[in-house]
Automatic annotation (TrEMBL):
Protein name: peptidylglycine monooxygenase
Main location: secreted
Organism listed in the record: Culex quinquefasciatus (Southern house mosquito)
Keyword DNA-binding: no
EC number: 1.14.17.3
Cofactor: Cu(2+)
Molecular function terms from GO: copper ion binding; peptidylglycine monooxygenase activity
Gene that encodes the chain: 6030997
PROSITE patterns in UniProt: CU2_MONOOXYGENASE_2
KW Cytoplasm (keyword) present: no
Amino acid sequence: MLVERFHMVASSTVFLLTVGLLAELASGLVENSNDTKSSSGAYAVGRFPFLMPKVIPYKPELYLCTPVKVDYTKSYYIVGFEPNATMATAHHMLLYGCGAPGSESAVWNCGEMAKSDPDGKEEVGSPCGTGSSSQIIYAWARDAPKLELPENVGFKVGKDSPIKYIVLQVHYAHIDKFKDGTTYDDSGIFLHYTLKTMTKQAGVLLLGTGGYIPPNKVEHMETLCDIRENKTIHPFAYRTHTHSLGRVVSGYRVRVDEQGTDHWIRLGKRDPLTPQMFYPVESTEPILYKDRLAARCTMESNRNTITNIGATNNDEMCNFYLMYYVENDEPLSMKYCFSNGPPYFYWRNKETELNNIPDYDASHL
């Protein structure tokens, strides 16, 4: 399964961290004496600088991860994300909520293909530890602005949450500015958080595909999943992601009526090459047990070779993120919804039992 995660390696200079910074990483989210107020003024909001610790990437397509341990004696609620990055430096950033980090190092090689990279000089690992809980809670690319969650909505971390660590992953696609060996990077995200209990817990469901795009062809990369948990899901934001071949990405809630007709409600549709921020969903109608979620990426290739779903900018990706909340409940156990993609999986496949497919709408802006 590939999301916005690519292979990377990093030089040993990455790991030259000060004692003070290591102490800050260890202490993690704590109560902040410089709190501000929520948009309604109802509760205090802290601001935690979760940034790369002055790393020096030395090779294009590098991926670095760094962790912060959450104070497990309290429950915190993340209510906003303020990027500290530009697309000139960072191709993308992801925030993972983990039960344990993928490494005990302060920074590590966390690319998809890191273990097979012959130039790798440091410890490698996934963003989250093997066997631990893992979920994406935020994603950023293409100079997207900050995101503030709706009132009384927050990602619960720390006590009584499977998220004990937050891991920042940064993809450095281009590293010309770092070639002098002295320029460093502190890209990252300022986390806005509160100790006030949020009655609406946020979650993210990531829909995506595998597969490949034939040469000189328009291809549809599609996925579908069933909601099998008895919860009421309130969608409020979505985000799309492809590489350069993406033209349109669309997502839908599908509900069948008593006559067996599928009703497709569009959640969002965008050109994926515009700023890849979280946008308000087009429909906030609740998603219920037995509903289905579907996404399509319309890809257009003018290349003379096959383009695979894969780990570099020469490959492709098809991702549709759905951000939602549940009220007085826990978020979905399902965090990811992936299909095998083309030429193996399409909405039109007989086994999907889909009908009334919005073929034109899903591929045209």
